Each structure stands twice: as C-alpha cells, then as structure tokens.
Amino acid sequence: MADVAAINLENVTFSYNGGVVLDKVDLSVAENDFVWMVGPNGGGKTTLLKLVLGLLTPDSGHVRVFGQTPKTMRGRIGYMPQQTSLDLHFPITVMDVALMGRLGRAGSGGRYNAADRKAAEKALEQVGLADSSGQLFSELSGGQQRRMYIARALTCEPDLLILDEPTANIDQLLQRELYQLLESLLGKMTVVMVSHDPAFVGQFVRQVVCVNRTVEVHPTGEVSSEMLGEWYRDRDLRIVRHDRRFTNGEDHA
Amino acid sequence: MPDLLSAMLEYAFMRNALIAGLLAAVACGVVGSFVVARRITYVAGGIAHSVLGGMGVAGYLIAVHNWDAVTPLHGAIVAALLAAVVIGWVTLRARQREDTIIGAVWAVGMATGILFISQTPGYNQELMSYLFGNILMVSDSDLSVLLGLDLLIVALTLLLYNRFLAVCFDAEFARVRGIRVELYYILLLCLAALTVVVLVTVVGVVLVIALLTLPAAVAGLFSRTLRQMMIGAVAFCIFFIIAGLAVSYETNFPTGATIVLIAGVSYVVAIVVRWLIRKHRNPVSE
C-alpha cells in the first residue's frame, strides 16, 4: 500500500467536442508530494484536475486516485475550483459554505455535528476568515471568496488537496499568508496547485507539472528556483500577463 | 375580521378553507424559499400549468368511466410529479435548452387539460376553479391529502436540508463530495411539484407562481440565510392567505385573486420599507 501513488494517470486522452485537450498523458504524483501545475490557459490544467476528481471521464486511458477510481476516492479529496458561476445573491453564510466540505462523510447522515463545525471553524481560521464566519457570501470581496473556497476544501480534511488558482484576486499580503498555510500542510497531505505565480511556490514545491495538451514533469532537484522563474517566464510570460489582465477585469466586474 | 371569525365558527367550508390555507402556507414557505434562492420559478411555473392536464384527465375519468376513487387532486399530483421528473431529467441528462422544454411542458399540460375538460360531459364550472382556485370548495378528504403532502414535504426538507442547500448553491462541489446531484435536484423539483399541488387548491393553476414565490421574496428581503427565509415565508404566506380570506369574505371578491394581489402589494411595500431602512441606516452611500 505504501507504494500507491496519490494520483496516477496512464495514457489519458480527453477531448471536448472533437478537440483534443489532453493527449496521451502520463502522470504520477506520490503521496504527500507538493505539485505545482503550470501551463497556458486552455492547455488542459482544469480538465486534468476534473479527470482526477472524476467530474470528467477520459476518452481512453486510466485515472487512479490512491489506487482506485476517482469516484470511490472522492471522500479523500478536497477541491477548490478555479472559477465558480455561483449565484452571488444566494442567501448563505460563510460558515454554511465551509460546512459543505463535510458533506458525504461517513457517519454524517446529512446533518452536521459538533466535529463538523469544529473542522469548519478551524479551516476558516487557517485562511483568516474566522471573524467572517457569520457573514453573508454576497458580502465577501473576490479575495475573501477565494479564501472561503480554500477553507471549504480544507474542511474536507483531505488526503489530496486540489487548488485551482488559489492566488487569483488575492492581494500580496494574503498571498504570503496563503503560502505559509500551504507550507504548513507540507508532508501532511498531497497538494496539487495550479498557479501562475512562481514567486513563492519555488521554495517548497517538489514537482513542477507543465500541462499543455501533453504533460511534462520537472522535479525541483533538476530545476532551481531561479531557473524555475526563468523557465516559467520564457515559456509563459505573454500568456501569464494576458491571464492576469483577464482575472483582474473579472474582479472589477 | 370578527365576521370572518363568526363565519369560521358557523360554516365548515370556511374552517376547511382556513386549514387548507395554513397547510399551504407551510409547504409554500419551505419549498418556495428553495425555488426563489435557486431561481427556478420558471420551472415551478411549467409544473403548475401541467397540473391542469392531470386534473382534466382525472375529471374525465370520473365523469365518463366512473372512477369513483379518483379525485382531480390525485390527477394533479400525478401530473405535477411527471412534469417535475421530465423537466429535471431533460435538463440534467439530455442537455436540451431548459427554457424550451419548460415552455413545452407548460403548454402541452394545459392543452391536455383543456382537451379532456371539453370532452367531459356536463357543465364545466370546474375549469374556472382549476385555473383560479376555489379554496371555499376544499373537502375533508382533500384536507387529509394536503396534510399528508405537507408532512412529506417538511420531513424531507428537514432531513435533506444540507444536501439540498449544497446542490442549489454549488452542484459541482456537491458532486465532488459524493452527493448524487441529479437525484437531489429531481427530488427538489418533485417537492416543488407537490407544493404546487397544495397551492393549486388555494389559488389555482394560473396564480400558483405568485403564491409560491412572493412570500419567499418578501422574507428574502429581510433574512440572511435560507432557514430564516423559510420561517419568514411561512409567516408571510399565512398572513396573505388569512387576509385574502377575510377581504374576499367581506367583499365577495374571488379568494385566490385577492390573496395574490395582497401578496403582490405587500412585496412592493416590503421593497420600499427595506429601502427606507437602508437609507436610514446608511444615509451617505444610498
């Protein structure tokens, strides 16, 4: 059992309406690894994550999470989506959203108990939203919303944490706190994080996974943090900037 | 109001009307809040109008084939559930345009009803009471069906509240947490369908949507969470129905229309009141 990879993709191909998004992808992420996932927008990062979550099924190939199908392992995965098309005026508090991470856990027959509340409170504290737990979702800023989604993923108390662009819309100070939080998770769970921001990740990331229709893996042993920055900039500067402008624009909307 | 009270004591049909109204208010507040929060008023509208088909078919079977055990209310339940499952299934599975399907169910249901009512012998006064409701005609057996529906709706909502909330708020995340999103969405539509049936007895097919959404909308103006919204919506719905009964008793106006108009006026008043409260609290930003 010790050798079971947290994530294992074998020869995975996936296409949307005939357009190939991922082409014969192999990827293995060991348990308790920290993986930084990069690549241009539309390169298939989110698709890859959704395959791991079992939200999408590959055209061919196998996806395994802790050696099993993603659907059976969902209880062990915490997920923070990149963009949500949620109704901003939905009448719900931050605490209620965080508690959703406890859904579907064995033993909780649809009702939350004291342990569930404790886990949600702890997660909100970790992302600095402890004081906002009673606030309405609609009252949060864009950055606070991102943090709420991270808290919801942490509330799952996952073995595999999947974060799709957690740093988008978060200001510098909070970004630093977020990376401290991620650093504190090192070795405790497997973390896969999509981010366009190489600044902090280079310090403790163990594997860099570049997704652009195919997947290339660079262990950090081979890539120093300076090289990483260079490499990332050379490859993706244009795309990254374009993407930043896009998310900023959305934040103001 | 004193007149209404003495009428209650004197006439069984007035007592039945009040009990039906109270039962309707409970289902309406609880499920109406989900409908408003999830923005599926149009789905509820489609279900409501398809109910006419069920009542028409039931009425035909009673008159022509002597199906004595059946009442129009039974037909309404079957039609509403069928419409809910069709709309839910088609939107989730077949990925058809949701509004097109809802529009089709809406009109096909009504057309079926009109066809069967036209073929039912005898003078069809019932069409008007199906369309616009007749709370003064609620029978004792109707009341027991309404009570059963109410208990079912409230029990399921209490039991599955967190799942319904998650499916309504963020279906994708709920799915990742292993919640069977399709099942719960269709179940929620079925609860909406049963609520529609309860409300049809009060205000009729055409006016159901107003009674399903207005109390929740008014409550939504003054509440922060779905739970508060539900409690408020039940209270407002009870108020609208009792006020409507009282006014229509005094004036001899049609009860369903009176209830809906009171609800509509209250909604406008509530918006103004909230605006004034906010202006008072926060004079600079508004």
Topology (SSEs and partners):
The complex is a heterodimer of chains A (253) and B (286).
Chain A: E1 7-16, E2 19-29, E3 34-38, H1 45-53, E4 60-65, E5 77-80, H2 94-99, H3 114-126, H4 142-155, E6 160-164, H5 172-185, E7 190-194, H6 198-204, E8 207-212, E9 214-219, H7 225-252
Parallel strand pairs in A: 3-7, 3-8, 5-6, 6-7
Antiparallel strand pairs in A: 1-2, 1-4, 8-9
Chain B: H1 2-10, H2 12-38, H3 41-65, H4 72-94, H5 98-119, H6 126-132, H7 140-169, H8 171-176, H9 181-221, H10 226-251, H11 255-281
Helix pairs in contact in B: 1-2, 2-7, 2-9, 2-10, 3-4, 3-5, 3-9, 4-5, 4-9, 6-9, 7-9, 9-10, 9-11, 10-11
Could you describe the 3D structure shown?
The complex is a heterodimer of chains A (253) and B (286). Helix content of chain A is 36%, strand content 23%. Chain A is an alpha/beta fold and 253 residues long. A 6-stranded mixed sheet of chain A has the order 5-6-7-3-8-9, sandwiched between helices. In chain A, strands 2-1-4 form a 3-stranded antiparallel sheet. The longest helix of chain A has 28 residues, at 225-252. The model of chain A is unreliable at 234-253 (pLDDT under 50). The model of chain B has no long low-confidence stretch (mean pLDDT 89). The longest helix of chain B is centred in the C-terminal third of the chain and has 41 residues, at 181-221. Chain B has 11 helices and no strands. In chain B, helix 1 (2-10) packs across helix 2, helix 3 packs parallel to helix 5 and helix 9 (181-221) packs across helix 10 (226-251). With 286 residues, chain B is mainly α. Chain B has helices at 2-10, 12-38, 41-65, 72-94, 98-119, 126-132, 140-169, 171-176, 181-221, 226-251, 255-281. Classes of the chains: A alpha/beta (253), B mainly alpha (286). At the A-B interface, helix 2 of A face helix 7, helix 8 and helix 10 of B.
